[in-house]
Structure formats: C-alpha cells, structure tokens
Amino acid sequence: MTAAGTLRQARPGLPGLLVLMALVASVVTLAVVAVSGRPPASQAQRVQQIAAGLHCPICKDLSVADSPAPLAQQMRQEIAQKLAAGQSAGQIRASFVAAYGDSVLMSPPRQGIAGAVYYLPAGVLAAGLIAAVTLLRRWRRRMPEAQPADPGASALSEPQLQAVARAIARLREEERG
Asked: What architecture is domain 43-107?
C-alpha cells in the first residue's frame, strides 16, 4: 500500500475538518469586525459625508462636497460649525431641507411622493409576478389534456397514407438495385 493510501485511511475526515476550521475562523473574524465597527470619522470626514449628500443649489448635478461655488463653500463651513456645536448629521440635513426644500437632498426622502422612488420598483415587480402567475394558470387550464392515442386512428388521410406507402416501396427498390 502506498503512503498516500495509508494517509487517506488514517485520516478520512481531514478535508472536512479543514473546511470546518476555515468556516469557524471566518465567523469569528466577521463577529470581531461587527462588534468593533468602524473607527469614528474625523471632523473633516463627517463634513465631507454630509456635504456629499446635499445638492449645491447653484451648480447643476454637483454635491456641496464637489462644488467650487462660493455658496457650497459656505454650506460646508456651516456643516462644520453645526457638527462642532454637537448637532447630528440628520439634524444638519433637516436644517438644509428647511432652508432649501427637498431638492437639496442628493437622494429623495423615503416619505411622501418622493418615497415612490424606493417602493415603486418593488410594486411593479410584484404586479408583474402576479400577472405572470395568473396568465400561466389560465394558459394551463386552456391546454387540452393529453388523450390516449387510438391505435386505429391515424393523423393522415387515406391518400396521404398511400403516398407514404409508395415512397417507402420506391426507397426499398432503390436500396436493392
């Protein structure tokens, strides 16, 4: 017997044990990362995050974080002051919404008419699935059940059967000759 065969006989569960150990190590790593979380962001990073979620009222399609406009610079300074005063990101966003309206947000709010942006795709998907299931059920009900074939009945008419018989006879003659 070879050394590899002896090793396989001596440790039949080694691959399974290795997979189990890798799985346990992955779960432990994920648990440590989940518990520890991210380190707190610096003041500048928090200003950048909040500013990235706000539209610049002057620039088209630019966030306050990306805009070079003087108003965007003032808004970034205001965000920094409000953070230093202890306001949360939600409170700061709410103050800008109060001053400029919902259009200042880079993503629409999840309530009111703007909330349809979040819920409409799921509703359309659900309606499509319901319609597909309904149509499939109707289609299956309309399909005729398979009838056992009558051995005496033929799908071909008598002249067609005679033409097939003549064609078979010709083919046999050609094979012989």
From this structure: Orthogonal Bundle (1.10)
